[in-house]
Each structure stands twice: as C-alpha cells, then as structure tokens.
Amino acid sequence: MARFNQAHAQENETLFTLINVDVIRGKRQLLCNLNMVFTAGEFIALAGENGCGKSSLLTVLGGLAPLEKGTLLFKGQLLSEISMRDLAEYRAVMLQSASTPFGFLVDEILQLARHHIIESPDNRHRIISEVAEQFDITHLLSRNIQTLSGGERQRVFLSKAILQLLPVNPQDSLVGKLLLLDEPTSALDLRHQKLVMQQLVSLSKQGLCIVCVSHDLNLISPYCSRMLLLAEQGCIADDKPENALTIDTLARCYHTQLNLIRNQEHDVFVTH
Fold first, then answer.
1. pTM of the shown model
2. Mean pLDDT over each residue of the chain, to the nearest integer
C-alpha cells in the first residue's frame, strides 16, 4: 500500500471527501450516491432511524468495512491505499459494542491505545492520567474491565479512542485527525452525558474532526456544529442543527409526526 503523505496531511484541512459513495450490506442498499466533505474542527452528528445506515457508513469511513461503490479520499489519498498502521495515527474509531474477552485492567487498555507512539513512559502516564481525569475514569484505572458497568466501559473505550490520536507534545495540533464514534453516550447517566459532550466540543475546538452517530437528538444538537440526517437511502439534511431539524425533515427521517421547541439561544429540541 502507498505510504501516507504526512506532510500533505498537515497542510490540508479537508479530511474526508466522499464522492458518489454507496453503502451496501449483503443485498440491501442502505445509502446511495453520498457526496460530502468533512473538515478539521467539525463536530458532526449522524442521525436517522434504526437500519438507515449510520453505523455502516461509520465503519466504511473508518476503513473497517469495504467500500462497495464510489470514492473515499482521506486527506487527498484513496482510503484503500493507506495502511492500517498509518491510518491509526490519524483516525480512531469507537464502535457501539467494544469486545472485552479478557480481563484487562483499565490502565492496560488505555496503554494499548498508544502502542504505536514513540514516547517516554512518563509522558504516556501523564497523557493517560489527564484523559482519565477528563472522562472521570481515574478511579477505574486499576479495575478489571469486565467488572465495570456499561456506562463506565463506554467512557473507558471513548478515552482509548481519544488517546490513540493525542500528540506526544500537548502544544501540537489535532488538526488533520479524525474521531469516529458510534453512540458513545447511549449507556451514560445525565452527568456523564454532559461531561462527554463538553469534552468532545473542546477537542473539536483544538482541530479534531468528530463524526458521531447518535439517536439522542436533544443531547447532541446543542453541541454539534453540523448535523446529517440520513433517510431515503441518502442524506436529506446537512446543516447546522437548528436548520437541519425541521418538522418536514424529521417526518421524512422518522416516519412519524414530531414537534420542535426553540429557545432564545436558537437551540432546537424535538418533542413528541
């Protein structure tokens, strides 16, 4: 496979380009003819009803599933021509159900996230400690991953994905890196949902591009900078949340009548 052009990646803020992309699972066409561009610093929400292709699209973007049709460019290069080792430096994925067949300690799992990075043990410990504090898992570091609750596990694997991308030098930029998340808050209580969203916003402001699948429109819409609504085998809305979420687009997306409430800050909330 072609060596990833790191110098080009540092200069180009466009991370992902989708050209006429189809997403197919088995014999079923989920999404057809997608054309999109994702850029540095965006916090993008992917929404839509069950089975519309959100998770499948995420795995294709992450290079974890084959592209059936179309072109995927990651920083100007064909995604299929970038080795998984090179891709790991710039792209991290958190899927819905992370497998934990062995009883690793949480700290061991977080250390695995940085095995591809050359750094001192002290620096690695510092970065892991900072992320653990940010996502409220410091008290879990010595715990067996298999003994944790669903929400605790979710925060551990989210931290792991982020640790994969963080630079050795905290002054270095996150521009040019991509974080793909599939329902990262589905098992979290209200306090930790808010904490995770605030941390993701902070990372996006540092240049990290985040694409996050979420069913909870009311949770993610005040935080994301862009919302994509998937339905009818395509993207029926691609805009700021307050513009993407309308009565008409929601009806097309979820096949039911929903209502909207808007506050003075122009946030929009969906109600039954």
1. 0.94
2. 93
